[in-house]
Design a protein that fits this description.
Blueprint lengths: L9 H12 L16 H14 L4 E7 L6 H14 L3 E6 L10 H10 L1 E2 L9 H13 L32 H15 L6 H8 L6 H5 L12 H14 L5 E6 L7 H14 L5 E7 L3 H9 L6 H8 L8 H7 L1 E3 L5 H19 L5 H18 L3 H13 L4
Parallel strand pairs: 1-5, 1-6, 2-4, 4-5
Antiparallel strand pairs: 2-3
Helix pairs in contact: 1-14, 4-9, 5-6, 10-12, 14-15, 14-16, 15-16
Amino acid sequence: MKSQEKPLNKDRALKILTALKRDQVNTTTVSYLHIGHNEFISKFLRELELTSRGDYFFKVINAPKGGGKTHLLTLSKQLALKQGFAVSLLETSWEDFLFKKEHNLYRKFIQNLQIGGITTREGHLATALKLWVDIADEKNYKLCPHGLKPFSCSFPSCKLPPEFTSLKEDLKTALRILRDEWKYKREINSPLILDWLNGVKVPLKNLRSIGIKERIDRGNALEYIGEIVKLLTLIDYRGVVLAIDDDNEKLTEDGLKELLRINYRLSFSTYLYFIYATPVHFAHLLLQNLTKSGREEYELFSLFKRIPSSKEIKEAIDSIIYYIDTLTREEMEELVEKLIKIHTLSNNKKLNSNDYQKIFVELIPNAHNLHLTPGNFLKEVLSILLEREY
Protein backbone atom coordinates (compact mmCIF):
# COMPACT_ATOMS: atom_id res chain seq x y z
CA MET A 1 0.00 0.00 0.00
CA LYS A 2 2.68 2.48 0.91
CA SER A 3 4.64 1.80 -2.23
CA GLN A 4 1.64 2.82 -4.32
CA GLU A 5 1.14 6.16 -2.55
CA LYS A 6 2.10 9.39 -4.20
CA PRO A 7 4.50 11.46 -2.07
CA LEU A 8 2.77 13.75 0.39
CA ASN A 9 2.99 17.37 -0.77
CA LYS A 10 1.43 20.67 0.26
CA ASP A 11 -1.56 20.26 -2.06
CA ARG A 12 -2.44 16.81 -0.71
CA ALA A 13 -1.86 17.96 2.88
CA LEU A 14 -4.32 20.83 2.36
CA LYS A 15 -6.90 18.41 0.91
CA ILE A 16 -6.61 16.18 3.97
CA LEU A 17 -6.96 19.07 6.42
CA THR A 18 -9.89 20.57 4.50
CA ALA A 19 -11.71 17.22 4.58
CA LEU A 20 -11.02 16.80 8.32
CA LYS A 21 -12.35 20.29 9.07
CA ARG A 22 -15.57 19.32 7.27
CA ASP A 23 -15.72 15.96 9.09
CA GLN A 24 -15.24 14.15 5.77
CA VAL A 25 -12.85 11.57 4.29
CA ASN A 26 -10.93 12.65 1.20
CA THR A 27 -11.10 9.76 -1.28
CA THR A 28 -7.76 10.38 -2.97
CA THR A 29 -5.75 10.95 0.23
CA VAL A 30 -7.37 8.45 2.62
CA SER A 31 -4.27 6.24 2.89
CA TYR A 32 -2.11 9.02 4.41
CA LEU A 33 -3.99 8.78 7.72
CA HIS A 34 -4.38 5.02 7.64
CA ILE A 35 -3.58 3.25 10.92
CA GLY A 36 -3.98 -0.48 11.65
CA HIS A 37 -6.65 -2.79 10.15
CA ASN A 38 -3.91 -4.96 8.62
CA GLU A 39 -5.84 -8.16 9.31
CA PHE A 40 -8.97 -6.76 7.64
CA ILE A 41 -7.06 -5.49 4.60
CA SER A 42 -5.22 -8.79 4.09
CA LYS A 43 -8.47 -10.76 4.31
CA PHE A 44 -10.27 -8.24 2.07
CA LEU A 45 -7.61 -8.58 -0.64
CA ARG A 46 -7.75 -12.39 -0.43
CA GLU A 47 -11.52 -12.32 -0.74
CA LEU A 48 -11.35 -9.89 -3.66
CA GLU A 49 -9.19 -12.45 -5.44
CA LEU A 50 -11.87 -15.10 -4.86
CA THR A 51 -14.55 -12.63 -5.98
CA SER A 52 -12.66 -12.13 -9.25
CA ARG A 53 -13.04 -15.90 -9.81
CA GLY A 54 -16.83 -15.72 -9.45
CA ASP A 55 -17.53 -15.83 -5.70
CA TYR A 56 -20.01 -13.73 -3.72
CA PHE A 57 -19.21 -12.23 -0.30
CA PHE A 58 -21.28 -10.42 2.31
CA LYS A 59 -19.43 -8.63 5.12
CA VAL A 60 -20.38 -6.22 7.91
CA ILE A 61 -18.17 -3.48 9.38
CA ASN A 62 -19.26 -2.61 12.90
CA ALA A 63 -18.25 0.54 14.81
CA PRO A 64 -19.98 3.40 16.63
CA LYS A 65 -20.39 6.81 15.01
CA GLY A 66 -16.96 8.34 14.55
CA GLY A 67 -15.40 4.89 14.88
CA GLY A 68 -13.77 4.88 11.43
CA LYS A 69 -16.35 3.08 9.25
CA THR A 70 -16.29 5.69 6.48
CA HIS A 71 -12.49 5.82 6.54
CA LEU A 72 -12.19 2.02 6.24
CA LEU A 73 -14.84 1.81 3.50
CA THR A 74 -13.11 4.57 1.54
CA LEU A 75 -9.76 2.82 1.94
CA SER A 76 -11.38 -0.46 0.80
CA LYS A 77 -12.82 1.34 -2.21
CA GLN A 78 -9.40 2.63 -3.24
CA LEU A 79 -7.84 -0.82 -2.79
CA ALA A 80 -10.58 -2.44 -4.90
CA LEU A 81 -10.22 0.15 -7.69
CA LYS A 82 -6.47 -0.51 -7.79
CA GLN A 83 -7.20 -4.24 -8.08
CA GLY A 84 -9.30 -3.63 -11.21
CA PHE A 85 -12.75 -3.73 -9.60
CA ALA A 86 -15.65 -1.37 -10.13
CA VAL A 87 -16.92 0.07 -6.84
CA SER A 88 -20.21 1.62 -5.74
CA LEU A 89 -20.05 3.27 -2.30
CA LEU A 90 -23.43 4.47 -1.01
CA GLU A 91 -23.73 6.80 1.98
CA THR A 92 -27.31 6.15 2.99
CA SER A 93 -29.56 4.55 5.58
CA TRP A 94 -30.65 0.99 4.98
CA GLU A 95 -34.14 2.08 6.06
CA ASP A 96 -34.37 3.91 2.69
CA PHE A 97 -34.75 0.51 1.02
CA LEU A 98 -37.61 -0.78 3.16
CA PHE A 99 -40.96 -1.86 1.74
CA LYS A 100 -39.57 -3.34 -1.43
CA LYS A 101 -37.75 -0.20 -2.64
CA GLU A 102 -35.11 -2.24 -4.48
CA HIS A 103 -35.32 0.25 -7.33
CA ASN A 104 -33.83 2.92 -5.02
CA LEU A 105 -30.91 0.59 -4.33
CA TYR A 106 -30.37 -0.03 -8.05
CA ARG A 107 -30.40 3.69 -8.91
CA LYS A 108 -28.00 4.57 -6.10
CA PHE A 109 -25.79 1.65 -7.13
CA ILE A 110 -25.52 3.04 -10.68
CA GLN A 111 -25.20 6.69 -9.61
CA ASN A 112 -22.28 5.91 -7.28
CA LEU A 113 -20.54 3.38 -9.53
CA GLN A 114 -16.85 4.18 -10.06
CA ILE A 115 -14.38 2.51 -12.37
CA GLY A 116 -11.36 4.78 -11.99
CA GLY A 117 -9.89 6.84 -14.80
CA ILE A 118 -11.84 9.38 -16.83
CA THR A 119 -15.61 9.79 -16.88
CA THR A 120 -18.13 11.33 -19.23
CA ARG A 121 -21.14 13.42 -18.32
CA GLU A 122 -23.31 10.30 -18.60
CA GLY A 123 -21.47 8.66 -15.66
CA HIS A 124 -19.04 5.83 -14.99
CA LEU A 125 -21.16 3.03 -16.46
CA ALA A 126 -21.45 4.89 -19.77
CA THR A 127 -17.70 5.56 -19.66
CA ALA A 128 -16.95 1.86 -19.13
CA LEU A 129 -19.18 0.92 -22.06
CA LYS A 130 -17.67 3.58 -24.35
CA LEU A 131 -14.16 2.39 -23.52
CA TRP A 132 -15.28 -1.14 -24.39
CA VAL A 133 -16.82 -0.02 -27.71
CA ASP A 134 -13.50 1.62 -28.66
CA ILE A 135 -11.59 -1.67 -28.37
CA ALA A 136 -14.30 -4.33 -28.86
CA ASP A 137 -13.44 -5.02 -32.52
CA GLU A 138 -9.82 -5.72 -31.64
CA LYS A 139 -10.49 -8.16 -28.79
CA ASN A 140 -9.98 -11.88 -29.26
CA TYR A 141 -13.59 -12.99 -28.86
CA LYS A 142 -14.90 -16.37 -30.00
CA LEU A 143 -16.30 -16.71 -33.51
CA CYS A 144 -20.07 -16.62 -33.89
CA PRO A 145 -21.99 -19.87 -34.79
CA HIS A 146 -21.58 -18.98 -38.47
CA GLY A 147 -17.79 -18.86 -38.21
CA LEU A 148 -17.49 -15.08 -38.42
CA LYS A 149 -15.91 -12.57 -36.05
CA PRO A 150 -18.36 -10.84 -33.70
CA PHE A 151 -20.00 -7.67 -35.07
CA SER A 152 -19.31 -8.75 -38.68
CA CYS A 153 -22.15 -11.30 -39.03
CA SER A 154 -25.48 -10.03 -40.36
CA PHE A 155 -27.58 -12.08 -37.92
CA PRO A 156 -28.83 -9.84 -35.03
CA SER A 157 -27.98 -12.53 -32.48
CA CYS A 158 -24.35 -12.43 -33.66
CA LYS A 159 -23.96 -8.68 -33.18
CA LEU A 160 -22.40 -9.44 -29.79
CA PRO A 161 -19.61 -11.91 -28.96
CA PRO A 162 -20.70 -15.41 -27.82
CA GLU A 163 -19.26 -14.61 -24.38
CA PHE A 164 -22.19 -12.18 -23.86
CA THR A 165 -24.96 -14.74 -24.42
CA SER A 166 -25.65 -15.19 -20.69
CA LEU A 167 -26.89 -11.60 -20.34
CA LYS A 168 -30.60 -10.82 -20.33
CA GLU A 169 -32.05 -10.23 -23.80
CA ASP A 170 -32.96 -6.61 -23.07
CA LEU A 171 -29.41 -5.86 -21.96
CA LYS A 172 -27.99 -7.53 -25.09
CA THR A 173 -30.34 -5.43 -27.26
CA ALA A 174 -29.17 -2.28 -25.46
CA LEU A 175 -25.50 -3.19 -25.98
CA ARG A 176 -25.99 -3.84 -29.71
CA ILE A 177 -27.60 -0.42 -30.17
CA LEU A 178 -25.01 1.41 -28.06
CA ARG A 179 -22.14 -0.27 -29.89
CA ASP A 180 -23.49 0.58 -33.35
CA GLU A 181 -24.46 4.17 -32.52
CA TRP A 182 -21.21 5.03 -30.71
CA LYS A 183 -18.99 3.29 -33.23
CA TYR A 184 -20.58 5.03 -36.22
CA LYS A 185 -21.16 8.37 -34.44
CA ARG A 186 -24.93 8.48 -34.82
CA GLU A 187 -26.49 8.82 -31.38
CA ILE A 188 -30.24 8.34 -31.82
CA ASN A 189 -31.43 5.88 -29.18
CA SER A 190 -28.36 5.83 -26.93
CA PRO A 191 -29.65 8.62 -24.59
CA LEU A 192 -32.86 6.61 -24.04
CA ILE A 193 -30.84 3.46 -23.34
CA LEU A 194 -28.55 5.23 -20.87
CA ASP A 195 -31.61 6.58 -19.04
CA TRP A 196 -32.97 3.02 -18.93
CA LEU A 197 -29.67 1.66 -17.58
CA ASN A 198 -29.60 4.44 -14.96
CA GLY A 199 -33.01 3.33 -13.68
CA VAL A 200 -34.94 6.33 -15.00
CA LYS A 201 -38.65 5.63 -15.50
CA VAL A 202 -38.77 6.00 -19.30
CA PRO A 203 -41.95 5.41 -21.37
CA LEU A 204 -42.38 1.69 -21.98
CA LYS A 205 -43.60 2.27 -25.55
CA ASN A 206 -40.32 4.05 -26.35
CA LEU A 207 -38.32 1.12 -25.02
CA ARG A 208 -40.37 -1.44 -26.92
CA SER A 209 -39.96 0.53 -30.13
CA ILE A 210 -36.22 -0.30 -30.01
CA GLY A 211 -36.64 -3.90 -28.81
CA ILE A 212 -36.36 -3.51 -25.01
CA LYS A 213 -39.36 -5.20 -23.40
CA GLU A 214 -39.28 -4.06 -19.76
CA ARG A 215 -38.24 -1.21 -17.50
CA ILE A 216 -35.82 -1.63 -14.64
CA ASP A 217 -38.12 -1.32 -11.62
CA ARG A 218 -38.64 -2.79 -8.18
CA GLY A 219 -39.66 -6.14 -9.66
CA ASN A 220 -36.32 -6.77 -11.37
CA ALA A 221 -33.92 -4.19 -9.86
CA LEU A 222 -31.89 -6.70 -7.82
CA GLU A 223 -31.64 -9.00 -10.82
CA TYR A 224 -30.29 -6.10 -12.87
CA ILE A 225 -27.65 -5.30 -10.25
CA GLY A 226 -26.40 -8.83 -10.91
CA GLU A 227 -26.66 -8.27 -14.67
CA ILE A 228 -24.63 -5.04 -14.50
CA VAL A 229 -21.99 -6.86 -12.42
CA LYS A 230 -21.88 -9.63 -15.02
CA LEU A 231 -21.63 -7.06 -17.82
CA LEU A 232 -18.72 -5.26 -16.17
CA THR A 233 -16.80 -8.53 -15.79
CA LEU A 234 -17.39 -9.23 -19.50
CA ILE A 235 -15.78 -5.89 -20.40
CA ASP A 236 -12.66 -6.64 -18.38
CA TYR A 237 -13.40 -5.52 -14.81
CA ARG A 238 -12.50 -8.16 -12.24
CA GLY A 239 -15.72 -7.77 -10.28
CA VAL A 240 -17.78 -5.24 -8.33
CA VAL A 241 -17.74 -4.05 -4.73
CA LEU A 242 -21.05 -2.70 -3.41
CA ALA A 243 -20.54 -0.87 -0.10
CA ILE A 244 -23.20 0.82 2.03
CA ASP A 245 -22.14 3.31 4.72
CA ASP A 246 -25.12 3.54 7.09
CA ASP A 247 -24.76 6.00 9.99
CA ASN A 248 -28.28 5.39 11.29
CA GLU A 249 -27.94 4.17 14.89
CA LYS A 250 -31.20 2.23 14.72
CA LEU A 251 -31.74 -0.77 12.47
CA THR A 252 -35.29 -2.02 12.92
CA GLU A 253 -36.30 -5.65 12.73
CA ASP A 254 -38.01 -4.86 9.42
CA GLY A 255 -34.79 -3.25 8.22
CA LEU A 256 -32.74 -6.30 9.19
CA LYS A 257 -35.22 -8.64 7.53
CA GLU A 258 -35.10 -6.58 4.32
CA LEU A 259 -31.29 -6.56 4.42
CA LEU A 260 -31.22 -10.35 4.75
CA ARG A 261 -33.80 -10.77 1.99
CA ILE A 262 -31.90 -8.51 -0.41
CA ASN A 263 -28.60 -10.16 0.50
CA TYR A 264 -30.20 -13.51 -0.30
CA ARG A 265 -31.29 -12.23 -3.72
CA LEU A 266 -27.88 -10.70 -4.43
CA SER A 267 -26.10 -13.89 -3.31
CA PHE A 268 -27.12 -15.50 -6.62
CA SER A 269 -24.87 -12.95 -8.35
CA THR A 270 -21.27 -13.81 -9.08
CA TYR A 271 -18.23 -11.52 -8.96
CA LEU A 272 -19.90 -9.35 -6.27
CA TYR A 273 -18.57 -8.27 -2.86
CA PHE A 274 -21.21 -6.65 -0.63
CA ILE A 275 -20.12 -4.65 2.46
CA TYR A 276 -22.53 -3.11 4.95
CA ALA A 277 -21.13 -0.71 7.57
CA THR A 278 -23.29 0.13 10.58
CA PRO A 279 -23.02 1.56 14.13
CA VAL A 280 -25.69 -0.92 15.26
CA HIS A 281 -24.46 -3.93 17.29
CA PHE A 282 -25.12 -6.16 14.31
CA ALA A 283 -24.14 -9.49 15.87
CA HIS A 284 -26.49 -9.01 18.81
CA LEU A 285 -29.40 -7.97 16.56
CA LEU A 286 -28.78 -10.82 14.14
CA LEU A 287 -28.41 -13.43 16.86
CA GLN A 288 -31.56 -12.16 18.55
CA ASN A 289 -33.60 -12.44 15.36
CA LEU A 290 -32.18 -15.62 13.83
CA THR A 291 -32.89 -17.60 16.98
CA LYS A 292 -36.56 -16.60 16.95
CA SER A 293 -38.91 -19.32 15.87
CA GLY A 294 -40.17 -19.14 12.31
CA ARG A 295 -37.14 -17.37 10.80
CA GLU A 296 -36.67 -18.40 7.17
CA GLU A 297 -33.69 -20.65 6.50
CA TYR A 298 -32.84 -18.73 3.31
CA GLU A 299 -31.72 -15.79 5.47
CA LEU A 300 -29.17 -18.00 7.17
CA PHE A 301 -28.09 -19.56 3.90
CA SER A 302 -27.50 -16.14 2.29
CA LEU A 303 -25.11 -15.23 5.08
CA PHE A 304 -23.16 -18.43 5.59
CA LYS A 305 -23.63 -20.58 2.42
CA ARG A 306 -24.66 -23.44 4.68
CA ILE A 307 -26.97 -23.64 7.69
CA PRO A 308 -24.85 -23.54 10.86
CA SER A 309 -25.90 -25.56 13.88
CA SER A 310 -27.10 -23.79 17.00
CA LYS A 311 -23.64 -24.31 18.52
CA GLU A 312 -21.91 -22.79 15.49
CA ILE A 313 -24.18 -19.80 14.94
CA LYS A 314 -22.34 -17.22 17.08
CA GLU A 315 -19.00 -18.16 15.53
CA ALA A 316 -20.58 -18.04 12.06
CA ILE A 317 -21.99 -14.55 12.71
CA ASP A 318 -18.63 -13.28 13.99
CA SER A 319 -16.96 -14.58 10.81
CA ILE A 320 -18.87 -12.09 8.65
CA ILE A 321 -18.37 -9.08 10.95
CA TYR A 322 -15.29 -6.89 11.36
CA TYR A 323 -15.32 -4.90 14.60
CA ILE A 324 -13.37 -1.64 14.59
CA ASP A 325 -11.75 -1.25 18.01
CA THR A 326 -10.76 2.01 19.67
CA LEU A 327 -7.18 3.07 19.01
CA THR A 328 -4.34 1.81 21.20
CA ARG A 329 -2.07 4.42 22.75
CA GLU A 330 0.65 3.55 20.23
CA GLU A 331 -1.81 3.97 17.34
CA MET A 332 -2.89 7.34 18.71
CA GLU A 333 0.73 8.50 18.82
CA GLU A 334 1.34 7.25 15.27
CA LEU A 335 -1.79 9.00 14.02
CA VAL A 336 -0.77 12.26 15.71
CA GLU A 337 2.70 12.13 14.14
CA LYS A 338 1.10 11.78 10.71
CA LEU A 339 -1.31 14.61 11.38
CA ILE A 340 1.45 16.92 12.63
CA LYS A 341 3.44 16.22 9.45
CA ILE A 342 0.39 16.99 7.30
CA HIS A 343 -0.35 20.18 9.26
CA THR A 344 3.25 21.42 9.11
CA LEU A 345 3.47 20.73 5.37
CA SER A 346 0.20 22.54 4.65
CA ASN A 347 1.04 25.88 6.33
CA ASN A 348 4.76 25.77 7.25
CA LYS A 349 3.99 26.32 10.95
CA LYS A 350 5.73 24.04 13.45
CA LEU A 351 4.33 23.13 16.84
CA ASN A 352 5.96 24.48 19.98
CA SER A 353 6.69 22.60 23.20
CA ASN A 354 3.37 23.69 24.70
CA ASP A 355 1.48 22.08 21.81
CA TYR A 356 3.39 18.82 22.25
CA GLN A 357 2.61 18.95 25.99
CA LYS A 358 -1.12 19.34 25.28
CA ILE A 359 -1.19 16.47 22.78
CA PHE A 360 1.24 13.84 24.04
CA VAL A 361 1.13 14.41 27.80
CA GLU A 362 -2.48 15.49 28.30
CA LEU A 363 -4.71 14.54 25.37
CA ILE A 364 -3.47 11.06 24.39
CA PRO A 365 -3.51 9.48 27.89
CA ASN A 366 -6.93 11.02 28.57
CA ALA A 367 -8.35 9.94 25.19
CA HIS A 368 -7.01 6.40 25.70
CA ASN A 369 -8.59 6.16 29.16
CA LEU A 370 -11.93 7.45 27.85
CA HIS A 371 -11.81 5.11 24.82
CA LEU A 372 -12.46 7.98 22.41
CA THR A 373 -13.46 6.93 18.91
CA PRO A 374 -10.91 7.71 16.16
CA GLY A 375 -13.21 10.43 14.84
CA ASN A 376 -13.53 12.23 18.17
CA PHE A 377 -9.82 11.82 18.87
CA LEU A 378 -8.97 13.40 15.51
CA LYS A 379 -11.25 16.34 16.28
CA GLU A 380 -9.47 16.95 19.59
CA VAL A 381 -6.02 16.84 17.95
CA LEU A 382 -7.19 19.01 15.07
CA SER A 383 -8.52 21.69 17.43
CA ILE A 384 -5.06 22.00 18.99
CA LEU A 385 -3.31 22.09 15.61
CA LEU A 386 -5.66 24.68 14.19
CA GLU A 387 -4.81 27.05 17.04
CA ARG A 388 -1.38 27.38 15.39
CA GLU A 389 -3.00 28.86 12.27
CA TYR A 390 -4.15 31.99 14.05
